[in-house]
Structures are given as C-alpha cells and as structure tokens.
Amino acid sequence: MKSTSGRILILALLGALSASLASAADTESDTRAALAKRLPGAKPSDLRPSPIDGMYEFTRGADIAYVTRDGKYVIAGDLYDLAAEKNLSEDRRRDARLKLLAGVGASDRLEFAPSNPRYTITVFTDVDCGYCRKLHSQIAEYNRLGVAVDYLFFPRSGPGTDSWHKAESVWCSSDRNAALTSAKRGEPIKAKPCANTPVARHYALGEQVGVHGTPAMIMPNGEMLPGYVPPAMLVRHLQTSSK
Length: 243
Known about the structure:
There is one protein chain. By secondary structure, the chain is of the alpha+beta class. It contains 9 helices and 11 strands. 37% of the residues lie in helices and 18% in strands. Strands 7-9-8-10-11 form a 5-stranded mixed β-sheet. α6 (162-171) runs antiparallel to α7.
C-alpha cells in the first residue's frame, strides 16, 4: 500500500497560495493564470470555475481540490449536486482517468482478451500482490465472460525493488503474457534486460490516476474499483454501470 497521495500534494501546493493571492485579479482568466503561476507545473487550464460561486476547481491528474478565488481557503472533498443526486467530483475524476489512460498505446499494454470482448478494463497490477495473483488465476473466466483485461504495472514497493525488477523481466520476455502468468505463480522469470520498458511510465501514470493499492481496476467509464472483484460480480457491475 502506498503511503503518499496526490491529494496531499495538492493541499501542500494550494496551501502556499493563501499568503499571496489575497488580491486576486479581476477577470476569470487572470485569476486562473495567477493561481497557476504559483503551482509548479500547473497550467491555467488545470483550473476552472466550480459550480460554487467564488470557488475554482483544481485538477492534478485525477485528484480534485477546490480553492477560493482569493486563494485563502482550500476544500479537499467531493462536491455533490443534491438535486441531480450526482457526485460532481467523481465525474471529473472519471473523465481525468480516461484521458490519462488514452495516452497509453496498445504496444505499452499487456492484454488478455477474448475474441470479441464486451468490455475492456485496465488493471494496475503488482506481480507479488496476493489479490493480483488471485485475479490473474481467473483471467480465463474474465475472458470467457467477455471481459478483456489490459494490464499496466504498478509495483507497490516502488522503483528499484524486487517487484519492480520482476515487472521489467516480464516485459523483456519473448512471450510477455506467458511470463506474467509464470511470475504470478511465483516462478522465476529469466529474461535479458531490455531498454525502454514501460514500468516507470505505468507507475507514474498510476500515481496520477490515484492508485494506492493493487489490483486497481479502471472501468470503461473511468470508475476505479480498488481491489479484487470476482469475474461474475465484475460483469454484473459492468452491466449496471453501462446503462
């Protein structure tokens, strides 16, 4: 389980604004530019007016926070539209996740899929994670039920660790699918090191998406299910959420 959080980062960054934005600019574009200027790596497009007058929504990856126009106050929590019975923050997170995942090409994924999948999910996985192994032991059943699984690597122990090196060995194998299956059975993978593995990119993407543990399953609508979900239960959830 990871101990850091993108939300904590957002709070730290926005907290630095309170002393310097008391005299915010007059126009919306000026306000967004002034806020972004004080956030390392932020762009004005990362901020937009929220449904609450006088507050801006700040998005970093799939993390959402709300900051007052004058920069004095930050809210780290979900915003609900009670009349519509909608979680507006979660809707934005789902959109953000899908945009981030869209940047991962097919050649950077490890796919287990039936001939004609009804659904495709993305799963951030750790070779040594017990529930990741349980999920993969049922991969044939997920596929039989029409679910394609695109794997991305997220070694929870971080860069340079044994799990990280195992993920790289899987990627460097001549048959990556077979190597992943063997690795998840606890079998050693003997593959020569290769250049430009996507493990670091997957890991950074997982942090942006908001992965804190594995498996982390991203649904076609951008919803993230943290943890293992049995095949039949997952299909029922997909059927319900796609309506």
